Every structure is written in C-alpha cells, then in structure tokens.
C-alpha cells in the first residue's frame, strides 16, 4: 500500500494515472481525494492554457521570404511550392465557414488530444453542471462516467464537449444544438469513427471514438444511451426574453 | 500518366496530413520556442523537410511523433545558426502578450505567463504530455531520457507551475 507522499508525487507526474494502487489509496484517504480534486482543476486550466489560439499563430497565407537564419535552400523550390500550397490550403481550411459537419467535429477532436485519456476519475460535478447549464440540459443517471467536460467554441457557438468512459474506452460526445442533421450520418475520418444523429427540436449529437476498434453499432448504441439520459431544461420553441 | 496520378495522390495525402497536424505542431513549436515568429518558421521548415523525407514515414499513425522529432531538430538547428540574445522572461511574456492574453479568463493568461517561466527541461515534457497526449514512454523516447527522469521532470514542472500560479500547495509533497 502506498502512502500519501508517494500518491501525490505520482499524481503530480501523471494526474490521469489510472493505476489501481493509486485508486485504492485515493478511495481510502480524504486528504488525497481533496488534493486530487484541486490538482485536476488545475490540470484542466493547464490543458486550456496550452491550447493557444492557432488562428492567431498561423503562417501567413501568401509566400514570404524565409529568414536567412533558417537556411532556405534553392534545391527545395518545388517542395517549398508544395508547402506554400499546404499552408494556403490550411489557412483557407481554417477559414471555411460551413464545411462538412463531420469534418469539423474531427478537426475539433484533433485539437483536444488530452480529452481521450482512459481514466476512472470523474470530472468535477460543478464543472460538468456549468457546461451543461449553458446549453440548457442536464444528464440523468445512467450516462456513464463523464471524465471530461468543456464548453467549446464550435462553428460560432459554445457547445458541450464531454468524454464518457465506456468498457471499450473513452467516447466523445458533442451536443450540437445549433447544427440540424436531416438523418443519421456515419463517418470514419483521420482515425476517428463516429456518428451524428438528429435530435428532434435540439439540433444534433455527435458521438465518436478514436481508432478502428469500435464498430458503428456500438457507437450508435452509445449515442442513443446518451440521448436517453439528456434532460432538456428549456424548450427551444419557447419565446426567449 | 499513371505516375502523375500516383504523385498527385501522394501529394494530396501529405497535404491532408499536414493540415490535420499543423495546429498542434504550431502550438508545440510555440511552447518550445516561446516565440510565435520562430514557431511559424520552424513549422514551415519542418514541413519542407518532412516532404523531402516522407518515404521514411512508414506508418501515418506515427506521423505526429515523426513531425515532432523534426521540429525539435529544426529548433536546435535554428539555435546553431543564430546567436540568440539572452532575453529576460518578462520581456518574452510582454513580446508575446497578444497571444498569451488571448485567453478568455485572467487565470489562463497568468498560467501561460507562468509556463513561459518554467525551465525548458520541465516545460517540454509537460507540453508533450498535456498538449500532445504523449505517454511517459513516448516522452522518454522523444527526449532520450529514462522513464523515471521524465516522471521527475513532470513532477517538478507541475510543482513549480503551481507555486508560480499561487495555487494552494499546502497538500503538495516536498519532493
């Protein structure tokens, strides 16, 4: 059995470590539970702090003379042309307002790799409630362990981005109240497999996993389980003040 | 004709790969260099080198660590070529203020400023772990360290960062 010092040292190095010995110690020690809650709150801020806005940092959209200090070589002219094309395409890609919804969801996932950890540590209840409240919904029991909750900027709106731990691994859910889907859509892009399902009167729900291990049937089952546990706290057809 | 189609396909795949990885690569380069302009240059140069060396990327699933290795080498090269003037951290923070202060919350801006103050040997593994989602073994491989050394650096990084941010560290272990 490890002691408090060893536990806290391990957690400061790997806050999402799911080692059973650590879990056991945490369950038996109120002080280390408090320490963990504080640490995970700090960690959540750290994750957001590191994700600086790339749009502010993108390479200019037109070719420029590379700095001499970086030793641009003549023989690379062709490759340079190609990369400029990539950069331009990348810039445009960032700026396209209404590309495929599935592609945008996948792009968003790539910006939050830290959300995919397998863990048994639930997100703080208060943080989860804050995220859900902004979208006028709450989750009934039976959703599963929610390990990550963030209110993310997506297509001009703040949307809930949740990660639910399932037997097959972490599953990401985005509640897209402003995105209306006509029918369910399956997608398998850039290492992410998922579904977007319509939600009557409330836009749509995107549910996805990373890697090819999970089949679409399981993902759709998860999507319907989450849908069943969503309780809308505001009628979207009601007049707004 | 067949060669041209194959070449176009190869190029399209490479462009797609660059597009999907570029946001994280820029962020990594930014935290590595603490200089937005240098980060942009390093990522641009990295893509050039990656294009030239793409045949050595055998598995696209391993593209991220492959690009990160090139970025780290490129960053080291830029230091070899350029004699950097020693700059006070507060000046660095002030110089990159628009980016650091683009946070919607004051405490995020403070956290970013504190990250600037972390020694390189602590900041880099922390960024690899938290931003890039690397495991301890992957960080160790990338930095040429033992797993134990990586864990020690991660522990010290968070400990220093929490102190710099004025967090309640009363429950933190001494060492």
Number of domains of chain A: 2
- Describe the global form of chain B: globular
Total beta strands of chain B: 0
Q: Structural class of the helices, strands and pairings of chain B?
A: mainly alpha
CATH class of the largest domain in chain A: Alpha Beta
Q: Helix share of residues of chain B? A: over 70%
SSE layout and pairing:
The complex is a heterodimer of chains A (241) and B (175).
Chain A: H1 4-13, H2 20-28, H3 30-50, H4 77-95, H5 101-110, H6 125-134, E1 137-139, E2 145-154, E3 157-166, E4 169-176, E5 185-189, E6 192-198, E7 204-210, H7 216-229, E8 230-232
Helix pairs in contact in A: 1-3, 2-3
Chain B: H1 2-33, H2 36-52, H3 63-81, H4 89-95, H5 97-100, H6 106-117, H7 120-130, H8 136-143, H9 147-164
Structure description:
Chain A has 241 residues and is of the alpha+beta class. Chain A has two domains: 54-95, no CATH class; 100-232, 3-Layer(aba) Sandwich (Protein Transport Mog1p, Chain A), CATH 3.40.1000. Helices cover 39% and strands 22% of the residues of chain A. Chain A contains seven helices and eight strands, in the order ααααααβββββββαβ. In chain A, helix 1 (4-13) runs parallel beside helix 3 and helix 2 (20-28) packs across helix 3 (30-50). The model of chain A is unreliable at 55-99 and 236-241 (pLDDT under 50). By secondary structure, chain B is mostly helical. Chain B has two domains: 1-84, RNA polymerase sigma factor, region 2, helix turn helix motif (Rna Polymerase Sigma Factor, Chain: A, Orthogonal Bundle), CATH 1.10.1740; 118-166, Orthogonal Bundle (Arc Repressor Mutant, subunit A), CATH 1.10.10.10. Chain B has helices spanning 2-33, 36-52, 63-81, 89-95, 97-100, 106-117, 120-130, 136-143, 147-164. The radius of gyration of chain B is 18 Å and the shape is globular. The interface between A and B is large, with 56 and 65 residues.
């Amino acid at each position: 059995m490890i002691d408090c010092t060893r536990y806290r040292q391990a957690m400061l190095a790997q806050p999402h470590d799911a080692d059973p010995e650590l879990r056991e110690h945490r369950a038996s020690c109120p002080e280390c539970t408090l320490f963990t809650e504080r640490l995970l709150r700090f960690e959540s801020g750290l994750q957001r702090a590191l994700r600086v806005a790339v749009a502010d940092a993108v390479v200019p959209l037109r070719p420029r003379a590379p700095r001499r200090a970086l030793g641009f070589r003549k023989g690379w002219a062709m490759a340079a042309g190609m990369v400029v094309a990539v950069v331009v395409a990348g810039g445009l890609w960032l700026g396209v307002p209404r590309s495929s919804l599935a592609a945008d969801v996948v792009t968003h996932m790539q910006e939050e790799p830290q959300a995919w950890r397998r863990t048994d540590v639930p997100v703080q209840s208060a943080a989860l409630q804050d995220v859900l409240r902004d979208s006028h919904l709450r989750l009934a029991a039976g959703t599963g362990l929610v390990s990550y909750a963030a209110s993310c900027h997506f297509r001009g709106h703040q949307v809930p981005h949740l990660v639910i731990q399932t037997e097959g691994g972490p599953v990401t859910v985005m509640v897209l109240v402003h995105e209306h889907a006509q029918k369910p859509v399956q997608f398998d892009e850039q290492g992410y497999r998922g579904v977007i399902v319509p939600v009557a009167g409330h836009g749509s729900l995107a549910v996805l996993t990373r890697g090819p291990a999970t089949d679409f049937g399981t993902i759709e089952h998860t999507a319907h389980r989450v849908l069943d546990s969503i309780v809308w706290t505001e009628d979207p057809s009601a007049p707004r003040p | 004709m067949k060669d041209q189609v194959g070449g176009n396909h190869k190029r399209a795949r490479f462009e797609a790969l660059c597009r999907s990885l570029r946001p994280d690569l820029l962020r990594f380069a930014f935290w590595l260099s603490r200089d937005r302009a240098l980060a942009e240059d390093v990522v641009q140069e990295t893509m050039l080198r990656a294009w030239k060396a793409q045949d050595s990327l055998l598995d696209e699933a391993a593209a991220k660590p492959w690009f990160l290795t090139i970025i780290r080498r490129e960053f080291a090269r830029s230091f070899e070529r350029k004699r950097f003037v020693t700059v006070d951290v507060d000046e660095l923070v002030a110089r990159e203020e628009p980016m650091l202060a683009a946070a919607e919350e004051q405490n995020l801006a403070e956290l970013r400023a504190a990250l600037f103050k972390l020694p390189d040997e602590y900041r880099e593994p922390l960024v690899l772990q938290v931003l890039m989602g690397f495991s301890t073994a992957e960080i160790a491989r990338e930095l040429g360290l033992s797993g134990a050394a990586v864990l020690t650096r991660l522990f010290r990084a968070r400990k220093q960062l929490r102190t710099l941010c004025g967090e309640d560290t009363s429950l933190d272990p001494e060492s």
